[in-house]
Amino acid sequence: MTSSPLLLLTTTILLLLLHLPFGDSSNHDYSDALSKSILFFEGQRSGFLPQDQRIGWRANSGLSDGWPYNTDLVGGYYDAGDNVKFGFPMAFTTTLLAWSVIEFGDSMPSSELRNSLVAVRWATDYLLKTVSQTNRIFVQVGDPNIDHSCWERPEDMDTTRTVYAVDAPNTASDVAGETAAALAASSMAFRSSDPAYAETLLRTADRVFQFADSYRGAYSDNSNIREGACPFYCDFDGYQDELLWAAAWLRRASQDDNYLKYIEMNGKTLGADENINEFGWDNKHAGINVLVSKEVLEGNRYTLESYKASADSFMCTLIPESLASHIEYTPGGLIYKPGGSNLQHSTTISFLLLVYANYLAKTSQSVNCGSVFVTPNSLRLQAKKQVDYILGDNPMGLSYMVGYGDKYPQRIHHRGSSLPSIKDHPQFIACKEGSIYFNSTNPNPNVLVGAVVGGPGEDDVYDDNRVDFKKSEPTTYINAPFVGVLAYFAANPYPS
What we know:
The chain is mainly alpha-helical. It is built from 18 helices and five strands. The chain has helices spanning 5-18, 30-43, 87-104, 110-130, 144-147, 173-189, 195-214, 223-229, 240-254, 257-266, 285-299, 305-317, 343-362, 376-390, 415-418, 435-439, 469-472, 476-491; strands spanning 85-86, 136-141, 163-167, 367-368, 373-374. Helix 11 runs parallel beside helix 13 (343-362). The longest helix is centred in the N-terminal third of the chain and has 21 residues, at 110-130. The chain is globular and about 65 Å long. The protein starts with a helix and ends in a 5-residue tail after the last helix. Mean pLDDT is 92; it is low at 1-25.
């Protein structure tokens, strides 16, 4: 019996589908994911919420923050699933949100560009408060050890809102440096829409950098800070990278040659040639190299050539075909680094891939990886694999962005999301009374739309379990670079 043409066609299609990666990535709605990635930040807000707050299960919180110093520290973001405001990762989040707008804002629909700027400003308004007093920086609000012993809505917080401050000549080069970077980058993001605010940000960034550079050292080296910051957001990798990072952003925002000289003169002493294959809240080296490379590629600043060489080297480690030592990938193709909250590496590195691809493309250049020349499009395709994995093209068939797609994490490690909202349950829920919700296997009652969780382990396996915070907890610094990445792919779903 001969097969019918229809049967042969069907069989051929099935065989082709079997050889496709996990799902057809062309079906991803990057514009939808972009909108949701920005919306997430409204769920992380602290302070007085505005009338146009879109995540309706959240309400006002932390309204007396700063009172031990008789100062206003209301506002900002909770960094993850707890109710602490950690200045170090919040400033990094701000820098990456602003950088997303600078590089990819033109690719965003006007409504999402506006929402992105609102998200940036929610952070910068707070960061300005943290540096409003001369020679003092407020680096944290909330005692994490006490906070983490509770499972409590931010609206119900009755724990001590300890304020952590660093006064000169004590050191906080890392947090002050990152704050200066955040304010400088944000000044560029606001330059066209609010020039007066942009000027305030840039002027403040310059002052905060002087504090960071004059009193060199890590904030977590201060005994009054260490027990509050460590081991959560201790400075593990040193403060030197934040000084270069801040100077690079101030150079780009101001075009001041003094900052150019700083980057030229201090590169070696501050470790710019340490080609560390990482980019995140604690280690800025790869980001510095990409950022500074723009001056080499577009401005022919050959005195900064070592930064570009390091950026090239970093890109080569991401390309499987190159001979360079490679960053580790899971069997399913996700960038992997040990330590938990793995998707922070995937989103930050994807962002750098796209930014560097744009810089190279603008000057018609590629990267020489020895055995292979890597084009801007090759870098974009590497980023796209990471994005598509996060959005569902993975062995679990699961979107790691809450609210995107048909299948996504239901039990994320997040207090506000997992407890009944204050609108549905107006009665106070005390510190330990929330434990029944933490231990429940029920899905979270409040969907934190757009939250990207920590993600799977090195085996691509993800258990939807809020107790496993290393996998199930979202953070602002996972989402911030993802905003820029999604903006690019929303405008260019098929990079070429």
